[in-house]
Design brief:
The complex is a heterodimer. By secondary structure, chain A is an alpha+beta fold. Helices cover 64% and strands 12% of the residues of chain A. Chain A has 4 domains: 160 residues; 208 residues, no CATH class; 154 residues, no CATH class; 104 residues, Tick-borne Encephalitis virus Glycoprotein, domain 1 (Sandwich), CATH 2.60.98. In chain A, strands 3, 4, 5, 6, 7 and 8 form a 6-stranded antiparallel sheet that branches. A 4-stranded antiparallel sheet of chain A has the order 2-11-10-9. Chain A is globular. Chain B folds into 2 domains: 44 residues; 114 residues, Nucleic acid-binding proteins (OB fold (Dihydrolipoamide Acetyltransferase, E2P)), CATH 2.40.50.140. Chain B is elongated, with a radius of gyration of 26 Å. The chains are: A alpha+beta, B alpha/beta. β1 of chain A pairs antiparallel with β1 of chain B.
Chain lengths: 664, 174
């Protein structure tokens, strides 16, 4: 009964979205404001309707209405309440509905804004957002219906896949989806700007915070996904260049390029076409990402052939791509650059190079991800590429980007004198060289790692110096105390200094990545109680093993392992194996001893004779916690950059200022 | 550089910078293209069926390939002390269409292990025995075919016909 209400709400939302799409178009062509307004109101009903629909599905999941196929496959009686709720995004159809709801909510907020200044953009924004919703709600209505009923009522459901019962996995899809749907908003405004020929940076300013929010959520989603893999998948790593990961990473790459290059358009009126291309690309990759994440078309052996979701997604991507590019081509004349590139050593050139690298990276990841599909089409043979391929192709590009991150903030707009740049770069470089020589003398002989440390130190120092320089200048000019000067510096120029915090986060993350990529060690062995594995100066001693029942159908087998360094006991840890009887599935839960220097990562991989012997695998992951710390700093930086700055907004109303070369 | 002696207009400098930028950009693009293509040679893995591998054994010996097949339960031998695992896989068709036509993965796997006519391949792997290592599971092994006709795997992935609708990364990565 209640699920029927949800289904009805979903169908109503579909009708509403179709109506809004048509009405906005009609209103635009007939120049009739009331049709546009009507479309706007219709669009605003979508969020409540899809919210209601999602709520009824949650209700069905919680009470265990197993007649619904979706509930029967993702929920079960003995699952804890919060997992039952989050099972909403535990399967394909539910998560598509949830995706639509988030999209509708974002659209709702956009509809609420005051449109006085840019009334002419409204119908097009409605057309794009409601049109996107037509596709997604259409999918959940006709193809992947979460309210589909079984012909019988099973006594209990299968429950959520144990691998997904982790806090990281509970939070990962919503953040990722928020990131995905967030990018639809700047795309909608970009299209509106194109059609209405309002190609000044207005659309960029209006959507700047949307872009930042989308980017923040996408970054968070990637981080949470990595942490989940590290904690749950039990292979000692956090990133495997899996198609699903790549699918989320690609829009992040193009989105990052977009965030940077819009600055050039705002300040210098350049790269207008390029920004359009970037946002169109990001939108396409967002849809592609949603599709890959939810179909497993590439990695899966049992592909998604039974359902029509795949071809529909590809058609939708193709149609939107063709329409967007066609619109862009028709408006090329309006997108003439107001300025030209003046000098090779300039902020503009640095941004261009940055953009190029992000795009070549996206392209590289894309090629690697689709290589099995393409090679099968071309040669009839399936060729796959694994992490070594991705590492080799992307590492040099990431290294260049990192170097650029150190240099670019020191360049000025228009033109920088080489000498001037050299003066501010030589000493951070010298520090980096000294650090690298120190590391070399202490036994680090991998060239890749040394280059990595060189870049990390160099970029870290130049980025920090930007702060120090700003604080010193404030102190000198206004006599403020250090802390006040620091606070006001960041507070008055959030975008810039927030950006630098993000850069610092990236530096920390790079440190973690270099540590694990170059210095990870692992060993494995079967031990009797009292015996130990030795690795990287640590000794892991196997003590005991016990098996006990967990909640529901779960049986836990837990080892007690002591981690020693020399004779000193550092920590007693409990690596586990969880066995879910109903689904016959086992999870290997690692136990960690974590410090900023390294993680000792212990896995229990098997045992014999009730614990007479047990098999362990131990990883040493140097510096890996810098990755997570860097992620946190990254998020803080993005928040600083995006925090509303009302003072600055008043200033923004004034026409664009000509930027003096000195003013960065 | 002689730039200082040559009188120049701003336009010329700008033009020259742009040209330099294009050249630099092209160099980067070429470098990335080279990286992508050359890495394909070094790190690409052929995804083959047991039949294909055996048919081209001479050509593919010692080359990194990825093979999938159905695990025959009786052949699994595991030495827990030394972590040595040996088992035999039976050929299953490679294309999804064939699998679907035959009635789905579960059916295909069952047929493969029960038909003695189907080509088989012995696999050796060093590492803990994954829990999914059981009769009629699908094994995806990455490694090299030795001269002795045994496949030496350095990565072992197992899949059972899904109980869950989605494909999520497997735990057992070697």
């Amino acid at each position: 009964m209640i699920p029927d209400v949800g289904y009805l709400a979903m169908v109503t939302a579909l009708v509403g979205a179709v109506y809004a799409t048509i009405a906005s178009l009609y209103g635009f062509f007939k120049r009739e404001e009331r049709w546009v307004n009507s479309a706007r109101h219709a669009t605003m009903t979508l969020a409540p309707l899809l919210g209601l629909s999602s709520l009824t599905l949650i209700y069905a999941l919680v009470v265990g209405d197993f007649q619904l196929k979706y509930v029967a496959t993702t929920s079960s009686r003995d699952m804890p309440l919060f997992l039952k709720v989050t099972a909403l995004w535990g399967g394909q159809s539910g998560s598509l509905l949830f995706w639509s709801f988030l999209m509708a909510s974002f659209t709702f907020i956009v509809m609420l804004r005051r449109w006085d200044e840019d009334r002419e953009l409204l119908p097009h924004v409605i057309f794009v957002t409601a049109g996107t919703l037509v596709f997604f709600v259409g999918l959940t209505t006709f193809v992947a219906n979460p309210f589909e009923k079984l012909s019988f009522i099973p006594p209990d459901g299968q429950g959520l896949n144990p691998l997904l019962r982790h806090p990281g996995m509970v939070a990962h899809p919503p953040t990722l989806y928020l990131g995905y749907v967030g990018f639809v908003i700047p795309y909608a405004f970009a299209m509106a700007a194109l059609v209405t020929r309002r190609t000044d940076p207005h659309w960029i300013r209006v959507t700047r915070r949307w872009t930042l929010a989308a980017w923040l959520f996408l970054s968070l989603g990637l981080l949470l996904g990595g942490r989940w893999a590290y904690d749950v998948l039990g292979w000692g790593g956090y990133w495997a260049w899996d198609p699903v990961e790549n699918a989320a990473f690609m829009p992040w790459l193009t989105g990052t390029a977009f965030l940077h290059s819009v600055m050039i358009q705002e300040k210098r009126g350049m790269l207008k076409v390029w920004n359009m291309v970037l946002i169109i690309l990001t939108y396409g990759l967002v849809i592609f990402g949603t599709f890959i994440t939810r179909s497993g078309v590439i990695s899966s052996v049992h592909s998604f052939a039974q359902s029509a979701v795949g071809p529909l997604f590809f058609s939708f991507i193709a149609v939107t791509a063709v329409a967007s590019v066609a619109t862009l081509l028709r408006r090329l004349d309006d997108l003439k650059s107001e300025n030209r590139l003046d000098a090779l050593l300039s902020r503009e050139a640095a941004f261009l190079l940055n953009n190029m690298l992000f795009i070549t990276l996206t392209f590289s990841v894309f090629i690697g991800t689709i290589s099995p599909m393409v090679s099968e089409l071309v040669t009839g043979e399936k060729i796959t590429v694994g992490p070594p391929w991705f590492d080799r192709v992307t590492a040099p590009q990431f290294a260049l980007l990192l170097a650029l991150m150190g240099i670019a903030p020191l360049t000025a707009w228009r033109k920088t004198a080489a000498q001037r740049l050299g003066r501010s770069l030589w000493w951070p470089f010298l520090i980096a060289v000294v650090v690298v020589i120190g590391l070399f003398l202490r036994g680090v002989h991998s060239w890749g790692a040394l280059l990595g440390f060189l870049l990390v130190t160099f970029v870290g120092v130049t980025t920090l110096w930007e702060y120090v320089r700003g604080v010193i200048a404030r102190r000198r000019a206004r006599g403020e105390p250090w802390l006040v000067a620091f606070w006001r510096l960041a507070g008055r120029n959030r975008r810039r200094y927030g950006g630098y915090i993000v850069h610092l986060g990236v530096v920390c993350m790079a440190l973690g990545i270099i540590g694990t990529e170059f210095f990870q060690q692992d060993t494995e062995g079967t031990l009797r109680p009292g015996e130990a594995l030795e690795i990287g100066g640590f000794r892991t001693v196997y003590r005991t093993l016990r098996t006990y029942p967990g909640p529901g159908d779960l049986i836990v087998t837990e080892a007690t392992v002591e981690i020693y360094q020399g004779d000193q006991l550092l920590k007693t840890v409990h690596p586990k194996r969880e066995f879910y009887q109903n689904t016959q599935q086992t999870m290997t839960i690692p136990a960690l001893r974590s410090t900023m220097a390294e993680d000792v990562y212990v896995l229990l991989t098997g045992w014999e004779g009730g614990g007479a012997t047990a098999t362990f695998r131990v990883y040493i992951n140097p510096l890996v916690n810098w990755l997570w710390l860097g992620g946190l700093i990254f998020v803080v930086g993005t928040l600083v950059a995006g925090w509303p700055d009302f003072e600055a907004e008043r200033r923004m109303v004034m026409p664009r200022l000509t930027i003096a070369p000195q003013q960065v | 550089m002689q730039e200082a002696t040559v009188p120049k207009t701003e336009l010329q400098t700008a033009g020259r910078s742009r040209a330099k930028f294009y050249v630099g950009g092209l160099i980067i693009l070429a470098a990335v293209a080279y990286l992508i293509v050359s890495s394909f040679g070094a790190h690409a893995e052929y995804f083959l069926t047991v039949e294909e591998l055996l048919a081209r054994r001479d050509e593919l010996q010692g080359r990194q390939v990825r093979v999938s097949g159905a695990v025959i339960g009786d052949t699994i031998v595991y030495d827990a002390q030394n972590l040595d695992l040996e088992f035999t896989i039976a050929h299953v068709p490679g294309s999804n269409k064939e699998i679907e036509a035959a009635g789905g993965l579960a059916v295909v796997l069952r047929q493969a292990v029960s038909d003695p006519q189907v080509p088989r391949l012995t696999v050796r792997y060093h590492g803990p025995k994954p829990d999914l290592m059981q009769h009629e599971a699908q094994a995806i092994v990455t490694g090299k075919l030795g001269e002795d006709g045994i496949f030496y795997a350095d990565e072992l992935l197992l899949k059972c016909p899904t109980r869950y609708e989605e494909d999520i990364p497997s735990q057992s990565k070697g």
